[in-house]
Amino acid sequence: MPLEAARLDHPMGAGSDGGFRLDFDPRVRLEFHGSKISSDGGLLLFRELDETLGLHDLAGRSLRDTRTGKNGVHSLVGLMRQSPFGRLAAYPDVNDADRLSRDPVMRQIVGGRAVNDQAASTSQMARFETDILAPAHNRAALADLPGQWVDAMHDTQPPKWITLDMDSSVSPTYGDQEGTAWNGHFGCKCYHPLFVFNQFSDLKRCVLRKGNVHSADGWKDALAPVIVRYRSRDLMRFFRADAAFAIPELYEMLEAESYFYTIRLKGNAVLQDAVSHLLKRPVGRPPNYVRRFYHDFEYQAQSWNKARRVIAKAEWHPGDLFPRVGFVVTNLPMEPDWVIRFYNQRGTAEQHIKEGKYTINWTRLSCKRFRDHEVRLQLHALAYNIGSFLKRADLPEEIADWSLTSIQSRLIKIGARVVRHARKITFQLAEVAVSRNIFGQILAAIRALKPPPRPA
Q: What region holds the Transposase DDE domain (predicted)?
């Protein structure tokens, strides 16, 4: 057996006789074959999704390969696949790359020489993420890639309307990293990233920011490119955000771009006076359910260029002495209760952020330089979108409502054994959480997403 093949068959120095026996049943023998068996067989579905939508072809056209030598083992696109696919499979750090480099599924995903040799090592992935992708032009291209990928998804499933949700989040830090700062609201040292999602849970754009900036800081840098992307599409446009984004310049931009918006307002004396009739306790014995009252009126703050519609909601909860009052500024013409229900749906953006945190682990930012963290947040965003796109397919009823966490733990984490022949590579998959029939239906749904040919 050639030395390289022996090393791949028995990684980490395990010999052919390096198995283990178990006392409860001496017939049982455990052997480790890192290059023949994978725990991530379901990733091959996402590689098919990548091929169907041409996602990494877009990446290859957008990024510059700054390597000057001629001995590069893996292509730029291959390295780009290994980064987000590894994160999608719950390997959020380049420290995992040495083990993944021998994994047969990851080698197949990377392609090229990796199929018969191995994928990129930890040192190769570290150089890729901190040297090749770190220059300004590649960071700008990376920041634009989530939007390009979502556009590719829209080409195959054109939306009739679009709803954008903007929100900030926290990424705690635990060292003296560049740009980290104490944030009093979150009560920790952190970064303070900003996200823009659409109603399909796709992440359109994200921006990493220093930890001590205001929640709306840099909103235009995040939102303006997204608005430009939808400008040429014939659809209705909506926008939602919390009170941190109650900014006159934002209202004016949205109105100029024909967006309907609902943005929460912080209460003040003028607004409270306008709804004073809702603040009096209703006559009679309080019922054991929540009573809601609405009022809409025209309001113009001193910094606004014109008066705008404001909707107030007062909720009387059983046992409360005072009502819970909230205000929303909007240009929607619908009834007040409909507008408030529409605004409340922005809570789904918080759920998308939680999935990114706990499934993709995009808070894993352990470098020293701020620009390296910018790169890694974008790679996490791409991994998140690959998972999100699968949920847009016409999936079987059994898994149609799975969260990204369930997709990762039950669909991606499928045991797989590779059998290689001269002209064929076969992956034998375990049939536990996902049956052969469901797997086939998922594959058919992915192939049905193939977008129409682009005009020349």
A: 21-450
Three-class SS state of 88: helix
List per-residue pLDDT tens for the chain, 456 residues long. Answer: 444 444 444 444 334 456 888 889 888 888 887 678 999 999 999 999 999 999 999 999 999 998 887 767 899 999 999 999 999 999 998 888 998 999 999 999 999 999 989 999 999 999 999 999 999 999 999 999 999 999 999 999 999 999 999 999 999 998 889 999 999 999 999 999 999 999 999 999 999 999 999 999 999 999 999 999 999 999 999 999 999 999 999 999 999 999 999 999 999 999 999 999 988 887 778 888 999 999 999 999 999 999 999 999 999 998 888 899 999 999 999 999 999 999 999 989 999 999 999 999 999 888 899 999 999 999 999 999 999 999 999 999 999 999 999 999 999 999 999 998 888 999 999 998 899 999 999 999 999 998 766 655
Can you read off the two tokens belonging to residue 221?
């840098």
Long-range pairs for 26-33: beta carbons < 8 A, 24 or more residues apart: 33/9
The alpha helices in 3-158, defined as continuous H runs, are 3-9, 43-53, 55-62, 76-88, 97-100, 104-110, 122-127, 136-156
Amino acid at 27: R
> What distance in Å separates the CA atoms of residue 286 and residue 284, rounded to the nearest whole number?
6
CA distance 136 to 18: 48
Helices marked H in 54-117 — which ranges? 55-62, 76-88, 97-100, 104-110
Q: How many helices (H) and strands (E) does the chain have?
A: 16, 16
**Encoded amino acid at 101, one letter:** S
Cα–Cα distance for residue pair 254/238, rounded to 1 Å: 9
- Look at the alpha carbons of 424, 429, 434, 437 in this order and tell me if their dihedral is positive or negative: positive
Extents of the domains making up the chain: 257-344
Report the chain's terminal Cα–Cα distance, integer Å. 50
Tell me the one-letter amino acid at 405. T
φ, ψ of residue 130 to 5 degrees: the values are: -105, -15
**Do 182 and 189 touch, CB atoms closer than 8 A?**
yes
Give the C-alpha separation, 119 to 136, whole Å.
Answer: 26
| pTM score of the predicted model | 0.91
- Whether the CB-CB separation of 153 and 389 falls below 8 Å is answered with yes
